[in-house]
Amino acid sequence: MALSELWFVLIAVLFIGFIFLEGFDFGVGMSIKFLAKNETDKKMLIHTIGPVWDANEVWLITAGGAMFAAFPHWYATVFSGYYLPFVVLLMALIARGVAFEFREKIESDKWVKTWDWAIFAGSILPPFLLGVLFSSMLKGMPVDADMNIYASFTDFVNVYTVIGGVAFVLLSYLHGLIFVTLKTEGSLRTRAKEAALTIYWATGVVMIAFVALTAVYTEAFADRGPILIPLFAVVFVLYAFLHRLIAKGREAFSFTITGITLIAVMASFFIGLFPNVMISSLDSAYNMTIRAAASGDYSLKLMTFVALTMIPIVIAYTIWSYYVFRKRITEDVEHLEH
Amino acid sequence: MEEVLLSRIQFASTTLFHFIFVPLSIGLALIIAIMQTLYVVKKKEIYMKMTKFWSVFFLINFAIGVVTGIFQEFQFGMNWSTYSRFVGDIFGAPLAVEALLAFFLESTFIGIWIFGAQKLSKKLHLASIWLVSIGTIMSAFWILAANSFMQNPVGYVLQNGRAEMNDIVALLTNEKLWVAFPHTIFGSIATGAFFVVGVSAFYLVKKRQVDFFKKSIGIGLLVGLVGGLGLAFTGHSQAQYLMHAQPMKMAAAEGLWQDSADPAAWTLIGNIDTENRVTTGRIEIPYLLSYLTYNEFSGKVLGMESLEKQMIEKYGEGDYIPPVKTTFWSFRIMAGTGGALVVTSILGLFLLFRKKIASTTWYLKVMIPVIFLPFIGNSFGWIMSEIGRQPWVVNGLMKTADGVSPNVSAGQILFSLISFSTIYAILGIIMVILFVKVIQRGPEERKQKDVSVTDPFNVGGVSNGSK
User: Fold this and answer.
1) DSSP conformational letter for B270
2) Which chain A residues are closer than 8 Å to B115 by Cβ?
3) Is there a contact between A159 and A210 (Cβ–Cβ < 8 Å)?
4) Smallest Cβ distance to B77: which of A78, A97, A336?
5) What is the DSSP letter of B89?
6) Which residues contact B418 (CB under 8 A, 6 or more apart)?
7) Cα–Cα distance between B223 and B138 in angstroms, integer?
8) A141: which strand partners?
9) pLDDT 10s digit of each residue in chain B, 467 long?
10) Do A302 and B101 touch (CB under 8 A)?
11) How far apart, in whole angstroms, are the C-alpha atoms of residue A124 and residue B430?
12) DSSP structural state of residue B400
């Protein structure tokens, strides 16, 4: 495998790590409006992700930085080509990030409510926008001969990309609800379980629609069927068992399945793109290949050394941090820290 | 051309705003780590109280620093795609390393530190704040490694139409990096320290919690003096670096149009006339510019006109003189704030050792607005550094105007500029409101009830609840 291909995989891994981890943070954030009934619920919800959401978001930042370093052309094409969606994404992440810190600093209902909305919007918009981003990339964007995108509204927003966005939102929400069942006790845990059972069907339908539309609107299945068909087959089989597992309270197992589903959807974008990083809807001659978009060998070698040293260390202390905060959060809010 | 101007305004304003929070985070993280270390070593409750109190400011500030930093990682690609294509190979690498080495470390361990007080041993909990502090400093190192490449490109080869890395050692031993990194860190240390000094001074004037804030101001003044002196020394090496690596920036910072006499005098202030290319009404300090440049009391310094001729010969026709007035005055404002920090911290330490600090009200009153000086110095230091580099985005390799995204319209940039300005303004206002609230409440008056979930020492605290 060429170094550029290794880096394509590493960037996929960073986005996969991001959606797996931040996916449940987003889901918990959505629960602030959909699940929480009172302030205690909200505090408990925020507490489930309090120690980890910031680090989970770093996976996205690192993915962006790694694209810049390993695929300057890809980074430049995507970030300039999706200028306005990125502005909205950043606004959402900014509002959400400070909301966790600010919301309890002033005792006023209005103040707290405002930040609850910020958490909610900041949790629902990013997975939607990322779903739109990746599905439109797989469908093909008007990349021109100079590797620049001059996109119109329908390049961003069409049936396929909207379903892609909704798929990420619902999957994140389900993933988050199951995370809540894993991390809390009492009525919140019960209600999260009920909500997960309800949302299960809608999410399943959207997943089927997403996979069907991927087959219609993209070349992914035509090109990579032998990988994608078994991948989604496994996902759907697992998903078929999920309802019963949630109902039976098999929380860790359920969480694993929603995690695998999110990972599979994110991975399918990269599998479908390979060996390109961008697919041009104007002319396949303008497709940007992994090799053409990549940095020089020297830079990639150096980065490989750093990444292969650092990523295991990062994963090790990340796992340790989850171990430190392994206890369930109870309704005894005053003692949440214990 | 509108796109270039708007993108520059956006980059400058969002980066300057981000850099209000960054140095305060770096400085406060270090000071808090020192305070918590004192607690663990000396086992005195007051140091725990200090750690708790100052960490409230730190966490509010850190949150804003983090969220405004996300855009920093993305805006090269968004607004400067041509630049990104050209330098990604060598400039993107330190950014990616920064994320892997520093961002993960600080974000993971700040979570552990905030929520883990009751779950970790005292020493592990202390280790986590030190890891946060180390993370913030490493982060500065890697981003400055990237910026130093823009100022003084090294370790690259031009091929495939871009600057590709061919020597990481050269990139990381870049002379510019090793003058800019310590300068930035000392600036950050001073920012945190003078914040602690100023806020403590406010309480001492009001005679609230005198013992607590006498201790705090002492730590602040000591750390502040280290920061101030460090700034002065590293500032001096910055100037010497500039003189041989970026002489145009230095000449502009001096308002020096024609070559200087030998020995060269330093201009304290002057009236810069960019139209006629003269600087009139100079107040000069003889020998000083020679000394600053060469560490000797002789030697002449090239002016902008000679340097311009050299650059036209090398790069062809063009305007190679940066905005002189901005560079000149930014330099003076920056250096002035640095000087004021050294003087006020020495004075404060003198009063502290004479045990007069709590009663010298005029000094305390002066130190409250001095909180803002490091912020002003930091901002103008960056303005001098980045404006003085113009018209280049990568010195000698790519002009700023050639770096923008061709496919992003002025309308789009205007939209993002307005959006970011608005949300950043709101964040700034909230930060001030929250800081004022925390100051009004003080360290003692915190009730169980309004202890926030993000308070690292919630309920009971480490002192009586640790396992």
Assistant:
1) E
2) 50-51, 325, 337
3) no
4) A78
5) I
6) none
7) 19
8) A280
9) 689 999 999 999 999 999 999 999 999 999 999 999 999 999 999 999 999 999 999 999 999 999 999 999 999 999 999 999 999 999 999 999 999 999 999 999 999 999 988 889 999 999 999 999 999 999 999 999 999 999 999 999 999 889 999 999 999 999 999 999 999 999 999 999 999 999 999 999 999 999 999 999 999 999 999 999 999 999 989 988 998 899 999 999 988 898 888 888 888 888 888 888 888 888 888 888 888 888 888 888 889 999 999 999 999 998 999 999 999 999 999 999 999 999 999 999 999 999 989 999 999 999 999 999 999 999 999 999 999 999 999 999 999 999 999 999 999 999 999 999 999 999 999 999 999 999 998 887 554 443 344 444 544 333 333 32
10) no
11) 24
12) G
Please, are residues B16 and B185 in contact by the beta-carbon 8 Å criterion? no
Q: From CA B464, how far away is CA B449, in angstroms rounded?
A: 19
Strand-pair partners of B269:
B283
- pTM over cut 0.80: yes
Specify the residue for token string 């809807």. Answer: A281
**Distance, CA of B49 to CA of B32 (rounded, Å):** 11
- Asked if ipTM goes beyond 0.90, one says yes
The structural domain count of chain A equals: 1
Q: Would you call A65 and B452 a contact, using CB atoms and an 8 Å cutoff? A: no
Q: Please give the angle made by the CA atoms of B375, B202 and B446, to the nearest 5 degrees.
A: 105
Nearest C-alpha neighbor of A22 from the set A70, A48, A51, A60: A60
Question: For chain B, how many helices (H) and strands (E)?
Answer: 17, 6
User: Nearest residue on chain B to A42, judged by CA atoms?
Assistant: B453
**CA-CA distance, B71 to B64, in Å (whole number)?**
12
Closest by CA to A218, choosing from A272, A164, A270, is A272
- Contact (Cβ atoms closer than 8 angstroms) between residue A93 and residue B64: no
In angstroms, rounded to a whole number, what is the distance separating the alpha carbons of residues A244 and B321?
72
Sequence-separated (6 or more) residues with CB below 8 Å from residue B296? B290
Q: Does A295 touch chain B (CB under 8 A)?
A: yes
Residue from B385, B414, B412, B390 nearest B400 by CA: B390
- Are the beta carbons of B88 and A76 closer than 8 angstroms? yes
**A129: containing domain:** 3-335
